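Predict the 3D structure for this chain.
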Amino acid sequence: MLEKIREGSQGPVAKIILGAVILSFALAGIGGYLGQTTEQPVAEVNGVKISQTEFSRAFQNERARLEQQFGEYFAQIAADPTYMAQIRQGVVDRLVQQELQTQLAAELGLRVSDDSVRKAILELPYFQIGGQFNNDRYLQVIRQMNFQPDAFREYLREEMTRSQLISAVAGTDFALNSELTNAVALQQQTRSIDYVVISKESLQQNVTVTEQEIADYYDLNMSQFLAPEQVSVNYIDLNAANLTLETHVSEADVKAYYDQNKAQYVEPEKRRVSHILIDNSEDDDAAKAKAEDLLAQLQQGGDFAALAESSSDDTVSAEMGGDLDWIERDMMDPAFEDAAFALANKGDFSDVVQSEFGYHIIQLTDIQSQQVKAYDTVKADLRAELERTEKVNAFYEKQTEMGAIAFEISDTLVDAAEVAGVEVQTTALVDRNSLPAPLNTPAVLAAIFSPDVLEDKMNSEVIEVGDEHVVLVRVKEHVPAATKALADVSEQIKARLVSEKASELAKEKATTLYAEIEAGKSLNDLVTEQSLELRQEAALTRQAYTVSPAIVQHAFKMAHPTDDTPVVEKVDLNNGDAAIVALKTVTNATVEGEIDVQLKQNITMAQVNKNYMVFIEALKANAELNLPKAQAATE
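Done. Predicted structure below.
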């Protein structure tokens, strides 16, 4: 098994999985593992607790992803408490799955090597500039996510280790042609149905709810009516980019800086060259002989561009007479570069030069001597650089003074703000997941809800939230999580009870009507007697979206009718309604010709997902899980 896992971790599926993990991290942001909490965990897996902090981080990550996916429509979606409850539960489920995978990986002794982690970091596009890894960019990105390099490497190692397990399940699946054909035929099967829907809304006028029932429901379900913990925060936001310099950078300052750093504005010598390349990967002696023959033709007056076009194995440059455009030092193979920069005059060509690519003959076609960028062309950039340097220096000076004052006078931020030259800002009373930027980071949240700041009402330490960007916070007001008063939720409970009772009436009515059908009455007769609407689908497909999903799913599970007698069954719908479905005919699809590649992939991926869920359920079956529903109160 271990060998299969290791092999799977090197395949394309593993890379896709890892890419998805890091994409989510880059787009939505994942905070560092900061702070401790005394809150009840959202779940416990074999004794390992998943904290509210972990849940909040993952929930915000998922929320940000959905906001990016749905844009302005997300606000409407988020207004539905049932939908958001499903999102929260989905986040908890994923955290439990991840912990199960982590524990199994540890049990199997799986560990991603330091070299593999390093290689993954170097190859991630989020840390690259111009297609090349940039260490400054890397540090900037992980700092924004409140990671130190060591912590980020361990986070990435954990994700890569989990992906080994997933790829072992998902990366080895395949389907036989006969299985694909049968699957396509089933997917394309159609069914003819008649059905009626007994709507709960049509029965609500028959429902009454007493005050005692409302009170009883409230007493039994108080956990559903928790008002989330809320906090109002005073804070100082110090950002170097927003500072105003006391003195402007003068023209003399810019000119002096230019003169002192003129070496930085030197444009190195450039050369434009063409070449003829002879590939030596198959027969080195023959390649060298061919290159020397071409050199002899050039020495006898042969046209370089024509010979490059007809003989060079570099087909791209050959079409342009061998032209490689402008080159600088440290751009090419060292042997090639030395030969190119040894040529003295335009039109000169080298002897045969060997590189790792084969044998070259190089011609110098143009020279651009070393130049110093003129002051006028760079002074705007220099001024901006000097101003930024001044702001950064002022920022660190203010940060130090601000932090010292906030520590000495710990019961207010006014004095620290005065030293920093900024105003104290205040948030409204909001829950922990709704704090505005720049407070909506794990590091700031950990500080706000730490005992010193939350309970002792002290100023926080200086918290870095970005490059030359820090905040100081203190709690202005804190409202612990509490159960909402009955009066505040009475109408909500009443509406819920009315809906539940009406749903029960709809199901009871459907059961009664279904009993009459079993006794011999036809669906058409019932429709007429009860003044119901008979709906028909002559060719219902599995992908139908105009019919309730519960009806579609049930219709394709029903037994095939025999002797032209419809099969009739009762169905409870997801929205609380009920339905009676009569299956009249089943039409099997005929699959001819080659199956579409995309369809094959979809079927295979469906099998992959099925196997993955079987894998997860097997892990759950052998684990000790404690899944309290405390996460519902964190929204």
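Residues 375-408 form the longest helix (34 residues).
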